[in-house]
Amino acid sequence: MRQFVIIFPLLALVIISLARTAKVEAATGLNPSAKLVWHYYKATTCDDAEAYIRHQVEKFYKNDSSIAPKLLRLLYSDCMVNGCDASVLLQGPNSERTAPQNRGLGGFVIIDKIKQVLESRCPGVVSCADILNLATRDAVHMAGAPSYPVFTGRRDGGALNADAVDLPSPSVSFDESLAYFKSKGLDVLDMTTLLGAHSMGKTHCSHIVNRLYNFKSTGKPDPTMNTTLVSQLRYLCPPRTQKSQTDPLVYINPDSGSSNRFTSSYYSRVLSHNAVLGVDQELLNSDDSKEITQEFASGFEDFRKSFALAMSRMGSINVLTGNAGEIRRDCKVTNANYAA
């Protein structure tokens, strides 16, 4: 594991050095042959691409701050399945976005709008994969996260079937969660940091009812959950007794709620046993992740710096560059299925 107790002072230097580098390899351990470039589109016929993207994100964010958690989840769902190739954006009866794990995904509208704007200004140049990475960075920055460098030059991949989606349940154990992140080339610091994205957004009651009523088939709530939180969530999430029953949404971090602000309160809630999702509360079941959680709860800047690096690493997973993949004309369909 990277030495998280000494890495935080260095993270700012790492980010600064990355920003000054003309060309870098994808993050170590992810895909060393893939080349991503700082301000890639400055050297193409779309040198204002990032400004166009930021402007559209600002317009959407002013009307709906929930685009920040929506885009974060959309990027995670894309990068962690088959790499950051925008395959999750493709539509179809059995497409990746129809997988049960991707139920409730949002943010597609803003990506489609940005793509339309870019195609009108510099057609066939900016990939949907880069749009998703850049738009997410800009949205979470508006919510309070650092504006980390996003290296660009990704190309778009082909379609995946829904059964290819291997995203873990939000109820998995710590060991299962860490094994999944490690399978993507990420480590315990990356995982603990990226789970901090749960400082914003909502989840369906169906993802937490087991913790509220029948934890591990005991007929009782999860003993690690604060009893006050159990009562509050039971009021919002009644027992599921019928398949046709509605499945309400609840805030993953009630401290943030509808403000959708990026804060370190998520980690304070984990430490006080007030995490809504089981996977989040599991961070206390490892000495390493517990120590990182304590560090982030007491030092917001440490979390912000680590988040910047973890997002850069996740955004470099199995990227397509060079002649691989394509630059889609429409993010919803591959070019072979595009109808002008």
UniProtKB/TrEMBL annotation:
Q: Does the keyword Disulfide bond apply?
A: yes
From the Swiss-Prot or TrEMBL record, give the protein name. Answer: Peroxidase
Species assigned in the record: Arabis alpina
Which PANTHER family does this UniProt record tie to the protein? Answer: PEROXIDASE, PTHR31517
User: Could you tell me which cysteines form disulfide bridges?
Assistant: C46-C122, C79-C84, C128-C331, C205-C237
EC number(s) per entry: 1.11.1.7
Q: What does this protein do?
A: Removal of H(2)O(2), oxidation of toxic reductants, biosynthesis and degradation of lignin, suberization, auxin catabolism, response to environmental stresses such as wounding, pathogen attack and oxidative stress.
Would you identify the family this protein belongs to, as annotated?
Belongs to the peroxidase family. Ascorbate peroxidase subfamily. Belongs to the peroxidase family. Classical plant (class III) peroxidase subfamily.
Q: Which reactions does this protein catalyse?
A: 2 a phenolic donor + H2O2 = 2 a phenolic radical donor + 2 H2O
Instruction: Give GO terms: molecular function aspect only.
Output: heme binding; lactoperoxidase activity; metal ion binding
| EC class | oxidoreductase
Task: Give the subcellular location.
Answer: Secreted
Q: Which residues bind Ca(2+) 1?
A: D78, V81, G83, D85, S87, E96
In the UniProt record, the signal sequence range is 1-26
Name the cofactor(s) required for activity, per the record.
heme b; Ca(2+)
UniProt binding sites for heme b: H198
Q: Where does substrate bind?
A: P168
Q: How is the cofactor bound?
A: Binds 1 heme b (iron(II)-protoporphyrin IX) group per subunit.
One CC-aspect GO term: extracellular region
Q: Where is this site: Transition state stabilizer?
A: R73
Q: Which UniProt keywords apply?
A: Calcium, Disulfide bond, Heme, Hydrogen peroxide, Iron, Metal-binding, Oxidoreductase, Peroxidase, Secreted, Signal
Q: Does the keyword Metal-binding apply?
A: yes
Entry-linked InterPro entries: Haem_peroxidase, Haem_peroxidase_sf, Peroxidase_pln, Peroxidases_heam-ligand_BS, Secretory_peroxidase
Any GO BP? hydrogen peroxide catabolic process
Q: Which residues form the Plant heme peroxidase family profile domain?
A: 35-335
Name the residues that bind Ca(2+) 2.
D255
